[in-house]
Design a protein that fits this description.
There is one protein chain. The chain is about 10% helix and about 55% strand. It contains five helices and 35 strands. β20 and β21 form a beta hairpin. The chain is flat.
Length: about 500
């Protein structure tokens, strides 16, 4: 056996011996005893049993976290009664070693059972190898910190030449969480970490990592000037400390059309980089700038961000959905079709072109909004697990819509500003293209002058609803429209579709 294989085996053996020694007294608890506080399962898979002796009922539970449910381990029973019971632990085959902990509780006493399958090893890997590897395996990776998302828990991005992974939680030098700042880690530093892999949605993560080494970057952004530029553009300045051989700058391709370098001035270890931003005729925009230096052997980097205010882009929901995720602000107007969270204002918004999810509206509970209301919001194009949604939404205006019977609408004065939600049975269709038809509710009937696909439709977009949704005479239709009249006859003018129920 090679020496490099003997060493981790001895470390694991010593750990197990220590664990068994620490746990030995726990098997002698008067209330609950176990035949062994250490369970080994073969790496090729299988089952191992222990005996539980209790004076009262007991429960068994795996020690899990939000990121690690220990789904590979099966326990034959999670409850038991007084007396002697057999508890079996089963696991399928494993590529690498893995461990778990099970708590057996009876009253206020707890026995801890350590589970090990195979020999837990730490594999040195690139980001690409972590991405391709199995969950639950522990990796050691070296890369550059490219961005920091949370400075309390230590959530950040690590990248090497093969790819990028997300670090979800970083332990301090004493192995404790929520003390990330004590490490002094900054964007641009080269870091070696080790931790288990998990996959959250499509994001590959190492969780609760231990930092093995930090190689400080030779270039650092000390401060910036005009980090948020106005619509008309202007000058952005970055002040750097550079201990390497000169400074180079990367501007992302999508920012090159509006951002350029005007000068780079160095004096000793101090460098000032000036950028010029053009006027912004679109929505809000921003970019991340990367500064590089070298010691002749390695590349070191640091990053900073700048943003520029822009015009708010008025868009249909279909155009919004087709837009890329980013900081551009969009103005959307449509009808609330459903509300999934009445506290935060998570809802669905629909216009004639489509429907999208709105992930909350600021101060929603104070707005008094309801299903059917016509609202205008401003927000960013975001998404969750590939599904488009509106993020950071702010309400600009709202038109309340009142539910009413046809009889109630007939008593109202004509007013193009007051909208009603009206439901009735289609008795006849005068123009199928534009949706001119008659609705009846009880003994009351009203003419609907146009039933369009949704709010905001103009021109040819107003046509074709009835055919598209196979709406016909006898169906129950709900529309939203103001009350109007023509030659003294009441009508719902320029109504738009909300829902329908087929008569079949």
């Amino acid at each position: 056996m090679k020496l490099k294989r003997i060493f981790p085996f001895l470390v694991a053996l010593l750990a197990l011996m220590t664990s068994c020694t620490d746990e030995e007294t726990m098997t002698l608890l008067d209330e609950i005893q176990v035949s062994s506080s250490y369970v080994a399962i073969p790496v090729e898979g299988g089952s191992t049993s222990i005996t539980v002796t209790a004076k009262d009922s007991w429960t068994a539970e795996k020690v899990t976290t939000d990121k690690n449910k220990v789904e590979w381990l099966t326990i034959s029973s999670t409850t038991g009664s007084a007396g002697e019971s057999t508890l079996t632990f089963t696991a399928p085959s494993a590529i690498d070693g893995r461990t778990a902990e099970v708590l057996i509780k009876s009253g206020d006493k707890t026995q801890r059972i350590n589970i090990i399958q195979g020999l837990a090893t730490i594999a040195s890997a690139t980001c690409a190898e972590v991405i391709a590897g199995p969950d639950s395996k522990t990796y050691q990776v070296t890369g550059v910190c490219t961005a920091i998302a949370n400075t309390t828990y230590g959530n950040w991005y690590l990248a090497d030449k093969t790819g990028s992974i997300y670090i979800y939680g970083t332990l301090d030098k004493k192995g404790q969480p929520k003390n990330f700042l004590s490490l002094g880690l900054e964007v641009g530093d080269e870091v070696t970490v080790q931790g288990p892999k998990t996959t959250y949605g499509t994001t590959v993560e190492l969780i609760d990592v231990t930092v093995i080494n930090i190689n400080k970057s030779l270039v650092k952004v000390d401060s910036v000037k005009n980090a948020s530029l106005p619509i008309e553009g202007g000058e952005f300045m970055a002040y750097l400390t550079c201990k390497g051989q000169g400074v180079s700058v990367d501007i992302p391709n999508d920012a090159m059309s509006w951002l350029s370098i005007s000068s780079i001035q160095s004096a000793g270890t101090s460098t000032v980089v000036k950028f010029k931003a053009a006027a912004n005729t679109g929505g809000d925009r921003g970019t991340t700038l990367t500064f590089h230096t070298t010691d002749g052997a390695k590349d070191y980097s640091a990053q900073t961000m700048l943003s520029q205010k822009g015009a708010i882009v008025k868009a249909t929901i279909a155009a919004f959905i087709a837009a890329p995720v980013g900081d551009t602000q969009y103005r959307l107007t449509g009808v609330i079709t459903s509300i999934s969270n009445t506290t935060y204002g998570n809802l669905y918004l629909r216009d004639f072109s489509g429907e999208t999810y709105v992930y909350g509206i600021k101060d929603f509970t104070q707005k008094g909004l309801k299903v059917g209301d016509i609202i205008t919001i401003v927000g960013k194009r975001a998404e969750y697990k590939g599904t488009p949604q509106v993020g950071s939404a702010v309400l600009e205006s709202a038109i309340p819509v009142t539910s009413a019977t046809i009889a109630e609408v007939l008593t109202k004065p004509d007013n193009t500003s007051n909208y009603f939600m009206v439901t009735g049975t289609i008795t006849s269709i005068a123009n199928a293209d534009y949706g001119n038809l008659y609705l009846k509710d009880g003994e009351s009937e009203i003419y609907v002058y146009g039933c369009y696909p949704g709010y905001g439709a103009t021109g040819n977009d107003r046509k074709g609803l009835l055919a598209a949704k196979s709406i016909k005479v006898g169906d129950t239709l709900t529309v939203i429209a103001p009350k109007g009249s023509y030659n003294g006859v009441a009508q719902l003018a320029n109504s738009f579709y909300f829902s329908h129920v087929s008569a079949e």
